[in-house]
Amino acid sequence: MREVPATEFARNFGRYREIVQREPVAVMSHGRPTGYFVSTVEYEELQRYKNLARQSFATKDLTHDEIEMIASGRMSTDHDHLNALLDEK
């Protein structure tokens, strides 16, 4: 991520508008970030993630099939030692 002083950012906004299509830009003031300039694509992706994080459900509302799917889930074979823990009863 590129860091740029706020005055430089304001003076050369057009330049950073192009750069942000490749990488986010941290706008700095007195050595600390005051904001981040990101592309539209990144911003929209962030909004989708935030909306997903807000979704919640009560486990009591899960169907039997959903419970079975969760219970039968396994990690990749790289984590067989953890899968073994799931199999212990």
TrEMBL record:
SUPFAM superfamilies: YefM-like (SSF143120)
Tree of life domain: Bacteria
InterPro entries: Antitoxin_Phd/YefM (IPR006442), YefM-like_sf (IPR036165)
Record function comment: Antitoxin component of a type II toxin-antitoxin (TA) system.
Family listed: Belongs to the phD/YefM antitoxin family.
Protein name: Antitoxin
Source taxonomy: Bacteria, Pseudomonadati, Pseudomonadota, Alphaproteobacteria, Hyphomicrobiales
